[in-house]
Amino acid sequence: MTSKKTTQRQGFKTSEFIVYPAHGVGQIVAIEEQEVAGAKLELFVISFIKDKMTLRVPTAKIATVGMRKLAEPAIVKRALETLKGRARIKRTMWSRRAQEYEAKINSGDIVAIAEVVRDLYRSETQPEQSYSERQLYEAALDRLSREISAVQHITETEAVKEIEAALAKGPRRGPKPAEEAEAVEEEAA
Asked: Which pLDDT tens digit goes with each residue over 118-131?
């Protein structure tokens, strides 16, 4: 009996931090049993402290909803590397792009979320963002910083600093072109 339950739980334990695609990082605070239509149902009780929200997810449904363990440090590193890349902005209408960004944010994929942060990032010297761009940027930044802070056991503020440091290393945002050329030559040497 216990083995079936354990399989259903897919290695998730109480007090563990997880990523729930539509809401980001949460913590499993309990595992409850409820009776629904005469059948016993086992549920993960997940708390999203920052959003002051609690979700109950049937343990059998976690794969369907895409709940996953926190990203491995190597994946976090890949997400941070993604931030240093060149922003890829499609020349489609904003409404279509906004939907794509939203889908990436809610995918729960940390690298896809990092792409949104990279593509919507504006440095001090760049033109202002529209309200909706800013909203999506903030949402992506929030998801990314929460996961990085949970994986690296640092505060969200420290995680944001790490993200911003990576963004500053990106093209057009870092040093002046002359300094950049020297840096490239040094790397090649």
From this structure: 999 988 777 788 99
